[in-house]
Amino acid sequence: MQFKxxxxxxxxxxxxxxxxxxxxxxxxxxxxxxxxxxLENIGKSNGFDITTQCICKPNxxxxxxxxxGLVAPELRKTQYDFVIFQQGPSSQAYGRKSLLxxxxxxSVMALANHATPAYLMVWxxxxxxxxxxxxxxxxxDAAKSNGSxxxxxxxxxxxxxxxHKEYELYGPDGFHPSRLGSLLEALVILKSIAPxxxxxxxxxxxxxxxxxxxxxxxxFLKLVSLYLSEL
Length: 231
Hints:
Layout: H1 2-5, E1 20-26, H2 28-31, H3 35-45, E2 50-56, H4 62-68, H5 71-77, E3 82-85, H6 93-112, E4 116-120, H7 132-145, E5 149-151, H8 153-163, H9 179-193, H10 205-208, H11 217-229
Parallel strand pairs: 1-2, 1-3, 3-4, 4-5
Helix pairs in contact: 3-9, 6-7, 8-11
């Protein structure tokens, strides 16, 4: 799967003391619960120097970001290591076209500025949960077509819902992530861009604060690691 095939293009993520800079381009599925901050704080608690910037607006798709024109100047201004982009679930034809066409433009922008592009695969709402396979296929195809990393969050999200529904990933609206869902998002991103990291060794409040029952932290991390290892 693309998740494995793209590892060879990554440099050793934490091989230097220099901060790794990530530019997020997306919408509320990225910024809910301030997920980029969760990722940064996991890094701080575990000796990883990660900084993030977010060009994320409500209901935006990749086409909106291209048309608005904020990404290219940001990439010229600041040297990023990764550009991670997402839009809505994109299970239908228009969403697929947007992932392919505008994701390609973002990938080209990233590579032109010496950053690695990555698609963040999201998830459908509970109302349209039956479209999940389309979400997975369209993100996988787009990443493969455009030579970008695939962050397979949607696949891991689906596995949790199939096998461990006691972990509530959805927030009250049945679409945006709960605090635990945002933690899962941060963990899958971290493992995708730095595959050498053992998630089971991570600690810190950015992780434990997502759990009402702190006894479930270890199991959750093991499950995330397991599901990613199966891809």
